[in-house]
Amino acid sequence: MFKFQILYQSRKNQARIGAIITHRGVIETPVFMPVGTQGTIKTMPPEIVSSLGYNIILSNTYHLYLRPGPDIIQELGGIHKFMNWKKLILTDSGGFQVYSLSQFRKITEEGILFKSHINGTEHFFSPIMVLEIQKKLGSDILMVLDTCIPYPLSYEETKNLTELTHKWAVESFEYWQRHKNEKQAVFGIIQGGMYEDLRRYSAKFITSLEFDGYAIGGLSVGEPLETRNQMIETSLEYMPYHKPRYVMGIGTPLDIIDAVIRGIDMFDCVLPTRNARRGTVFTSKGFLSIKNASFKSDSLPLDPECECYTCRNFSRGYLRHLFHAKELLVYFLLTLHNLFYYAKLMKHIKNAIKTETLENLREEVAQYYLKNFNDSK
Amino acid sequence: MFKFQILYQSRKNQARIGAIITHRGVIETPVFMPVGTQGTIKTMPPEIVSSLGYNIILSNTYHLYLRPGPDIIQELGGIHKFMNWKKLILTDSGGFQVYSLSQFRKITEEGILFKSHINGTEHFFSPIMVLEIQKKLGSDILMVLDTCIPYPLSYEETKNLTELTHKWAVESFEYWQRHKNEKQAVFGIIQGGMYEDLRRYSAKFITSLEFDGYAIGGLSVGEPLETRNQMIETSLEYMPYHKPRYVMGIGTPLDIIDAVIRGIDMFDCVLPTRNARRGTVFTSKGFLSIKNASFKSDSLPLDPECECYTCRNFSRGYLRHLFHAKELLVYFLLTLHNLFYYAKLMKHIKNAIKTETLENLREEVAQYYLKNFNDSK
Q1: Which residues of B touch A82 (CB under 8 A)?
Q2: Which cofactor(s) does the record list (chains A, B) (predicted)?
Q3: CB atoms inside a 10 Å sphere around CB A266
């Protein structure tokens, strides 16, 4: 059981409010999925993530496959019970992590040979294997194996990797036809690098296979914001209206609004959690680095307009002290704040869709978040 | 306003139930104070520490003096507001940390010259200065500066350091007579090393000064359990019945029961929090190291008899995974469990005093915790 319903379609742009209906409950879109790489949203007890309003999180197949391994998670009752998260979980296919974390990898027609970033042991991922791993994990939404395409890359090489992604998508689809179950949905992934015609080609091809939803992959790999938006637009032209549309690994508040306006429903990104651990928080006035000496005896909260637990209870001066003293509590407090910010952003976005004021919200956010994430580091 | 009342005196031993009454509220003794070295109980949001039943914590003058500094804490409204802890705070004098953390120190008649363990800068602590720092911090119970006496140490050297502690106690006492305030109480510290007659000498001397309470210092520095208990007994002979008695830096569950039986009211120790971060937890059946391979796919909680948040929600298999993956959440979950264990232990102790069954509780705990802490590492 996996359904997607569109509850409201903006009259001014492509943005829409939707509902993903599963046996585990209903989630409203546009939705942001915090990243729980190793079976935990870093520093956060799951109840708190849930209390912030999150109904779906992402976890990484690559990491969980290597440690503790899918068999152990299966023995312990599946990923939900394992990490005590009662709502939805989407797992990626590992394609991106093999690309970004493994010291060594070799792509063949059959799959990807790679070495563990933990202990150097050799492993192989085929399209069917990554679905089997995700079946064992027991996630609610599974992603098919794709090839991650670096940026920049030649047209020829991009085309080859895109076609390999298509071949694997077909293998994944056929496998799933034979082995599907009622509780898990599978999404296809569009590649095509930063070439418009390859994106178009890939979007057409992938959406010709009847997956439960479709993702745009291979973005946020260093390309300019305009290119990113162009690739999203091109892919979207061919993505079916009545299925969930997910853009992977994105993004900043502005990235998210830009994609929602173009018709995207689902997002995941490490930004709120990773930034927090590096001392950078999202505020209603843009990024703030808690490390700054100017906050030494500042009694204000991170964001005077924020009502999160951290802002209601702790001063910048205290948080700066904790950060410099490397006190573990600070990573929790800043992560909580950033996840609260993203949850609120998604609420504002949904509200703005309904009231047809998304362009205004974009302007408001662009004032403070026009810069690329890289500028904030 | 600082009062101590004895609510119940055991008929079978020296244990007693008491109440420390301050402007910030009442705390019942025997009491265990979790250690919040740098203005935070490591990993723990203060509300959770409070919800576990703790009404008083300890923080370290040495650390807060070096970072962020007493002036900043004062500017930010004092230590309670700084760390958002609304209940009692006891601060030590820094004497022990100067001894254990500073790469360099020189003890003179006037105080201790030392180098910061953070950046090597030189600092000086005099008895009056450490009281002034603690005044700025705004803690509820202040400790006087003492000399930490290593174990083993010759009689002659122990005697000299003990006498210097006495000289500083007099200076502290006289300073406090002139500068005391209604909101802060000051405790004296008995030294004397591991020599019974020096302990007696120190206990007599320190308790001749009218402090609000008295502590036994210089224990848990490597001495055998029997020596420790002997030093506590000897010191206690001279400690006034109607004032709180605090044994510093102790201890294991068994240490605490042994000291309570002899008439001690207050405890602090890093064991529950530090052990947690190292993967060792306290259970009703003794220590458990979550690192063990045998827990790989163990679906039981840390302690099946425990009702803490961690034990109600997470398996050993999951916690082991988090620990090996160095996921920050695990330090929180294990710390919470250990603090829950200590809170419950203190409840059991109070109950056992009232029902005159403390010796039975001791036997029960000794079954599993007879070993020294060092064996558990």
Answers
A1: 315, 317-318, 321
A2: Zn(2+)
A3: 25
The reply to whether B10 touches chain A by the CB within 8 Å rule is no
Beta bridge partners of A21: A3, A26
In chain A, residues with a C-beta closer than 8 Å to the C-beta of B325 are 38, 63, 67
Q: Is A306 annotated as a binding residue?
A: yes
Domain contains B81: yes
Angle, helix B127-137 to helix B155-179, in steps of 10 degrees: 50
Is residue B260 located within the same domain as residue B297? no
A34 touches chain B (CB under 8 A): no
Q: Is the CB of B43 less than 8 angstroms away from the CB of A84?
A: no
B92 and B136, same structural domain?
A: yes
What average pLDDT score do residues B196-203 get? 98
Give tens-digit pLDDT for B280-300: 999 999 999 999 999 999 999
Q: How far apart are CA B154 and CA B132, in angstroms?
A: 33
Task: Sort out which chain B residues have CB atoms less than 8 A from A299's CB and list them.
Answer: 75-77
Considering B201, B234, B269, which residue would you say is the last residue of a domain?
A: B269
A278 belongs to a structural domain: no
* pLDDT one-digit tens code per residue, A15-50: 999 999 999 999 999 999 999 999 999 999 999 999
Scanning chain A, the segments in alpha helix (DSSP H) are: 46-51, 61-66, 70-75, 79-83, 95-101, 127-137, 155-179, 196-207, 225-237, 253-261, 271-277, 309-313, 316-324, 329-354, 358-369
In a domain, B7, yes or no: no
DSSP letter, residue A105: E
For the beta carbon of residue A119, count every other beta carbon within 10 angstroms. 8
Residue B67, class by beta-carbon neighbours within 10 Å (0-12 exposed, 13-18 middle, 19+ buried)? middle
Do B129 and B234 lie in one domain? The reply is yes
Residues of A in contact with B331 (CB under 8 A): 328
ipTM value for the complex: 0.97
A207 reaches B (C-beta below 8 A): no
Under DSSP, is residue A275 helix (H, G, I), strand (E, B) or coil? helix
Q: How far is B36 from chain A (nearest CA, A)?
A: 10
Flag whether the pTM goes above 0.90: yes
**Shortest distance, CA A302 to any CA of chain B (angstroms):** 14
- What is the domain extent for residue A108? 29-269
Residue to substitute from A66, A277, A328, interface B, most B β-carbons within 10 A? A328
Q: Under an 8 A CB cutoff, do B82 and A318 touch? A: yes
CB within 8 Å: A82 and B38: no
**Strand order from edge to edge, sheet including B16-22:** B2-9, B16-22, B25-29
Task: Collapse the DSSP code of A158 into the 3-class scheme (helix H, G, I; strand E, B; otherwise coil) and give the result.
Answer: helix
Q: Do the Cβ atoms of B332 and A333 come within 8 Å?
A: no
The answer as to whether A71 is a domain residue is yes
A254 and A178: one domain? yes
How many separate domains does chain A show?
A: 2
The pLDDT tens digits of the residues spanning A63-97 come to 999 999 999 999 999 999 999 999 999 999 998 88
What is the distance between the terminal CA atoms of chain A, rounded to a whole angstrom? 42
Q: Which residues of B have a catalytic role annotated?
A: 92, 268
